[in-house]
């Protein structure tokens, strides 16, 4: 029985009331027998029941029923039958509830049974379904069988559904006026003068038929025979109703009349006498006649009274069958929640889908909801997270304390929601939909590969997520891996947020905190306590582990708030502000640390119960750095860790930071006139785009301000900021979608190539159509050698119209190209929007975000003047944009074209190399078709140079990350890439370049040879290895499988293995020789410009990525030129880093690699960069901020906004 959800009796009955066998195909499932699809809270509400379905009005067929008697309790011999039909669709529904026991099960569920107050039915099967029914339209009776899932309950239920005895066609034949007129005409022809003078009324045929059938059930002498030539019969039924009459049991005969002429007559049906309702499972002919009469009763009563004047029909008044059904199913008097009874009427209002998920209905009292949950769990444990989600959300939606308490208990036992499982998979970059195809080892592998690079706090989070996956998959291996990854005493203490000075007394509190954060932590918490217990040799802790005692002294909630000096406990406390409050309390009252921490625990729990769980209750870490002079970290707010790197980088660019902090005076005026001439990234700037930019600037200012004033070591960026940073153009709804990514470097295997995006083109182009994409520059190939020409899309074309892409001519005024942005919707969708953002974020990288941020800033700010093509000149352009000229030489003729670019791209090409060598490659000459060569130089080099490293490569049909090491110099001389330097003229530089290119072309030749040797069709094997493997195989085969080789081959192959081996030995040195030779050449290439050192740039920042091509973790190293130190900014942690760590090549699988490198012109490093900018506020001001911010924060985290009954379903 396991693995199939069930339905409580009221739910089943409710489903029966709206199950319409006629429209089963449309509902795409059998509403009666199947469980509803799992509800997606993010999807728009849909009607669970198709609108056209009949909402049945069941009327009881008394003669065929065996109803419960008032006050009767079923026992193990009771069978009920409620035979009924619907007065709307005329279908027949026979509900048979059979309580007869089979020996073991003899205690039917009933209201006063505490364990099983209601039946919980599991569908067992169906009889009579016609698989070939036309359009799924079932014309035969079908019987659905269910049985109760409660172990002591013997109840079986069968529901027989029979289509109307009189089909729609039958009814038309009997009542259609046109048909009746033809019948009357036929009667006149046949009977002449004897025919009636008026045609039959529509009500007549049903009325007469009803009378005949009534007579047949109560036979009376002389009434059994009807002559066809009877005037009324002839015009009412004629000959064309024969099939209907025959169907209900009439028989016809030709008799000789008194005058000897033949007479056609009909005889009434002769049904058997009435029997017991349970005598036969198949209906008797008597039942059939009864059914037809019920249908006729409905048909006749459908006519207005004046149209049935004189009818002989005596209206039948069958009783409603719903109440007897409820009684038979034992669900007529279940405990209901007050005020929700309305939803039970058979109108179109539906319960929230979570009710149906539990097999419950909306008016269930709390205890029945929890009963329904337990029943579903008992029969379908595989969907436990869904049922838990249903129960939890309903508990919150109802505001039910008892249910929430129960949910909390369940959570403490390790229950979790579907969304938590989904989140956990995504956390490890695993698509939840594919999770079933991924084995445990792979997941553990991803987890382990990350551990090395992440902070302690993030490691804990990873562990927690892994634990959830372990529980969801029921995998002990994964659970073990999640808790085992903690080994040392220090790790254990840090995990619990403790330090060595704190004694055992605190452990239960900290453990409780961890498990209340997430029950999935339980195993890990126990593991940590175990480690601490061993280290301290503490019997008390061991006791605690075993018995769970050693409870902390209880502290009153009010007291806890008072200790933390919070006056109003009804407001939301922003976690980092609370943490800073606690920290300052601890600093001033070091003796009260235990009490403060206890109070903090209680306040947090209280806050969580009031405002929902917040994942960011981080203990302020035990960092030693002084708050006043150390940069703050940014907590990770989703799958957006590179965003933090970008934000940290931007913060250190002093002029940019100051412009943002003092933005108000410089913002773009938003008048149509002012915007008319504004061009950013060659595009006109719409009002919406400028507004989005300004919204971003204000959010960024807020963040920068907090980074300066926070009293804590880290803060939490707001989601709005993240959403905007990832937004192209006009608001959060227009988040960069992967398809626009294609415009840039293209994508590989669905992932964007690791490089910057061009500024908005397609998505935001006022032309907004394919023209922009078809422009010549938009080379979509994304091939390595050509990719740099692609980056020219980032820049404006500053030459004459020759190269201006069609459709992008900036002087043409912009027609409105898209509807105005949708106004922001309240709360729930804000969260949804962010989910979308997170989704996109997973597919982007830091360079793309940086590029988008520049675009947003330029849109937001007023330009100082204009450049070529009307492009706006502003601070962003001045700081980051170089004017890069691409020169093409054909037969000595030079043609050049200049573009503004905010970054340069380099490739490592699968070789450890220096940045200079990679840059030489990019700028150096490339041979193109038709004897054309191409190279690039800086017409004007920006003071801040951003260099992006293409890490994504494509190999054997799969994307792969190029993990070669890129050696960085602390000083980079740009001389060789410039048009001219301080000491060298254009010609002198070109002469040096020619020398260099000659060496480079030799280098390329060697590289090609190396690739041939290195790359084979075998993954991870170079050519020598392939040869060796083959040799080894041949050898083994010869000794172990001698029959494989015929004699002739044997002789020939005798020397084969050694030949292969020999060749491999020759090749292997060739490869290493090649490497040596290439290194030497690169050195010579580098040496060409040895003395060109007029234009030094200093290394400022390095974006680092660790992980595989499909995901991983970002952080950034930033140099502080004022204090002469390096720091690593890894989400919430900012710490000093040694040069050794930063510059070394890491030897391991998936080493961290640089993806972006920033150099700053040596003469302006102090003017343009400043890593530390701190001015922590006093705490009073902080608390005021907390109150001001509270309302907004709550909204963002409200998860249960749409829990009420769905009103969105239109009523008929
Ligand atoms: Zn109906
Ligand atoms: Zn039962």
TrEMBL record:
The entry's keywords: Hydrolase, Protease, Thiol protease, Ubl conjugation pathway
Keyword hit for Protease: yes
Residue ranges occupied by any USP domain in the UniProt entry: 632-1162
Keyword Ribonucleoprotein: no
EC number(s) stated in the UniProt entry for this protein: 3.4.19.12
GO biological process terms held by the UniProt record: proteasome-mediated ubiquitin-dependent protein catabolic process; protein deubiquitination; regulation of proteasomal protein catabolic process
Pfam families: RPT (PF13446), UCH (PF00443)
Region of interest (Disordered), residue spans: 27-47, 747-834
Domain of life, per lineage: Eukaryota
Biased composition (Basic and acidic residues): 771-789
Reactions listed under catalytic activity: Thiol-dependent hydrolysis of ester, thioester, amide, peptide and isopeptide bonds formed by the C-terminal Gly of ubiquitin (a 76-residue protein attached to proteins as an intracellular targeting signal)
GO molecular function, one term: proteasome binding
Compositionally skewed regions (Pro residues) per UniProt: 812-826
Positions with biased composition (Polar residues): 790-802
Protein name per Swiss-Prot or TrEMBL: ubiquitinyl hydrolase 1
């Amino acid at each position: 029985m396991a693995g199939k959800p069930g339905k409580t009796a009221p739910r089943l009955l409710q489903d029966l009331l709206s199950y319409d066998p006629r429209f089963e195909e449309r509902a795409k499932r059998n509403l009666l027998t199947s469980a509803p699809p799992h509800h997606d809270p993010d999807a728009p509400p849909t009607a669970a029941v198709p609108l056209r379905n009949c909402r049945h009005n069941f009327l009881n067929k008394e003669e065929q029923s065996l109803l419960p008697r008032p006050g009767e309790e079923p026992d193990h011999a009771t069978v009920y039958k409620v035979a009924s039909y619907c007065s709307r669709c005329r279908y027949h529904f026979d509900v048979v509830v059979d309580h007869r026991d089979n020996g073991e099960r003899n205690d039917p569920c009933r209201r006063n049974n505490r364990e099983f107050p209601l039946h919980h039915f599991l569908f067992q099967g169906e009889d009579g379904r016609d698989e070939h029914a036309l359009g799924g339209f079932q014309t035969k009776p079908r019987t659905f069988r269910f049985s109760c899932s409660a172990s002591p309950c013997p109840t079986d239920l069968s529901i027989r559904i029979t289509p109307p005895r009189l089909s729609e066609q039958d009814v038309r034949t009997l009542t259609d006026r046109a048909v009746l007129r033809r019948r009357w005409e036929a009667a006149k022809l046949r009977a002449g003068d004897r025919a009636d003078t008026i045609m039959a009324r529509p009500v007549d045929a049903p009325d007469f038929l009803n009378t005949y059938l009534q007579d047949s059930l109560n036979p009376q002498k002389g009434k059994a025979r009807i002559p066809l030539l009877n005037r009324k019969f002839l015009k009412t039924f004629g000959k064309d109703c024969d099939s209907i009459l025959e169907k209900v049991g009439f028989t016809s005969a030709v008799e000789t009349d008194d005058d000897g002429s033949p007479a056609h007559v009909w005889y009434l049906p002769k049904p058997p006498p009435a029997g017991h309702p349970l005598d036969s499972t198949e209906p008797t002919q008597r039942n059939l006649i009864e059914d037809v009469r019920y249908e006729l009763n409905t048909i006749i009563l459908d006519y207005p009274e004046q149209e049935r004047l004189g009818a002989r029909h005596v209206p039948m008044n069958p009783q409603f069958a719903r109440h007897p059904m409820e009684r038979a199913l034992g669900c007529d008097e279940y405990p209901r929640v007050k005020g929700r009874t309305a939803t039970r009427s058979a109108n179109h209002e539906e319960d929230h889908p979570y009710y149906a998920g539990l097999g419950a209905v909306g008016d269930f009292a709390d205890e029945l909801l929890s009963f329904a949950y337990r029943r579903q769990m008992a029969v379908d444990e595989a969907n436990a997270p869904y049922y838990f989600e249903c129960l939890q959300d309903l508990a919150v939606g109802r505001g039910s304390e008892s249910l929430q308490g129960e949910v909390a208990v369940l959570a403490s036992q390790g229950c979790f929601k579907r969304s938590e499982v989904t989140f956990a998979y995504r956390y490890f970059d695993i698509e939840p939909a594919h999770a079933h195809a991924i084995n445990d080892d792979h997941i553990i592998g991803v987890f382990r590969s990350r551990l090395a690079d992440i902070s302690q706090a993030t490691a804990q989070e990873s562990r927690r997520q892994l634990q959830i996956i372990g529980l969801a998959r029921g995998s002990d291996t994964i659970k073990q891996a999640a808790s085992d990854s903690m080994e040392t005493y220090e790790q254990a203490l840090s995990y619990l947020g403790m330090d060595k000075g704190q004694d055992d007394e605190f452990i239960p509190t900290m453990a409780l905190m961890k498990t209340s954060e997430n029950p999935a932590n339980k195993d890990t918490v126990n593991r940590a306590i175990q480690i601490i217990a061993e280290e301290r040799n503490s019997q008390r802790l061991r006791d605690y582990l075993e018995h769970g005692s050693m409870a902390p002294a209880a502290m009153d909630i009010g007291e806890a708030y008072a200790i933390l000096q919070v006056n109003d406990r009804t407001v939301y406390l922003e976690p980092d502000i609370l943490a800073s409050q606690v920290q300052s309390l601890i600093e001033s009252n070091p003796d009260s640390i235990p009490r403060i921490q206890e109070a903090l625990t209680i306040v947090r729990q209280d806050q969580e119960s009031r405002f929902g769980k917040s994942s960011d209750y981080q203990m302020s870490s035990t960092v030693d750095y002084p708050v006043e002079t150390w940069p703050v970290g940014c907590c990770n707010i989703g799958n957006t860790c590179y965003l933090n790197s970008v934000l940290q980088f931007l913060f250190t660019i002093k002029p940019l930071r100051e412009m943002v902090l003092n933005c108000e005076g410089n913002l773009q005026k938003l008048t149509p006139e002012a915007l008319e001439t504004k061009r950013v990234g060659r595009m006109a700037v719409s009002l919406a785009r400028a507004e989005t930019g300004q919204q971003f600037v204000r959010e960024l200012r807020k963040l920068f301000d907090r980074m300066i004033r926070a009293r804590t070591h880290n803060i939490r960026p707001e989601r709005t900021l993240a959403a905007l940073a990832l937004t192209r153009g006009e608001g959060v709804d227009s988040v960069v979608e992967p398809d626009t990514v294609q415009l840039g470097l293209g994508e590989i295997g669905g992932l964007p190539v690791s490089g910057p995006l061009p500024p908005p083109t397609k998505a935001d182009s006022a032309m907004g159509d394919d023209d922009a994409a078809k422009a010549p520059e938009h080379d979509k190939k994304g091939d390595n050698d050509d990719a740099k020409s692609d980056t020219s899309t980032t820049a404006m074309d500053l030459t004459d119209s020759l190269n201006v892409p069609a459709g992008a001519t900036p002087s043409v005024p912009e027609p409105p190209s898209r509807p105005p942005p949708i106004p922001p919707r309240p709360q729930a969708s804000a969260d949804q929007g962010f989910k979308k953002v997170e989704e996109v974020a997973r597919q982007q990288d830091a360079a793309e975000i940086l590029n988008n941020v520049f675009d947003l800033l330029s849109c937001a700010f007023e330009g100082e003047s204009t450049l070529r093509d009307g492009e706006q000149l502003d601070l962003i352009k001045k700081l980051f944009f170089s004017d890069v000229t691409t020169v093409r030489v054909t037969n000595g003729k030079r043609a050049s074209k200049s573009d503004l670019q905010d970054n340069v791209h380099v490739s490592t090409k699968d070789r450890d190399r220096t940045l200079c060598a990679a840059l030489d490659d990019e700028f150096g000459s490339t041979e193109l078709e038709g004897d054309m060569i191409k190279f690039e130089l800086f017409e004007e080099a920006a003071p801040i140079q951003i260099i992006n490293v293409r890490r994504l490569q494509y190999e054997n049909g799969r994307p792969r990350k190029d993990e070669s090491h890129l050696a960085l110099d602390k000083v980079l001389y740009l001389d060789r890439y410039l048009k001219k330097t301080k000491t060298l003229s254009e010609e002198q530089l070109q002469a040096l370049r020619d020398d260099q290119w000659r060496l480079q072309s030799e280098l390329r030749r060697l590289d090609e040879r190396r690739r041939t040797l290195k790359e084979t069709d075998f993954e991870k094997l170079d050519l020598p290895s392939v040869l060796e493997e083959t040799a080894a195989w041949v050898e083994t085969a010869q000794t172990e499988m001698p029959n494989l080789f015929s004699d002739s081959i044997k002789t020939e192959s005798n020397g084969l293995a050694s030949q292969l081996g020999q060749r491999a030995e020759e090749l292997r040195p060739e490869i290493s020789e090649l490497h040596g030779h290439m290194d030497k050449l690169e050195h010579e290439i580098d040496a060409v410009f040895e003395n060109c050192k007029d234009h030094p740039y200093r290394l400022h920042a390095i974006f680092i990525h660790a992980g595989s091509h499909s995901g991983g973790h970002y952080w950034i190293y930033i140099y502080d030129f004022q204090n002469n130190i390096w720091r690593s900014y890894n989400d919430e942690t900012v710490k000093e880093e040694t040069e050794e760590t930063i510059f070394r090549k890491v030897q391991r699988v998936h080493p961290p690699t640089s993806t972006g490198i920033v150099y700053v012109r040596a003469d302006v490093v102090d003017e343009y960069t400043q890593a530390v900018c701190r001015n922590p506020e006093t705490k009073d001001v902080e608390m005021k901020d907390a109150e001001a911010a509270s309302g907004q924060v709550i909204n963002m985290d409200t998860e249960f906004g749409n829990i009420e009954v769905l009103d969105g379903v239109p009523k008929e």
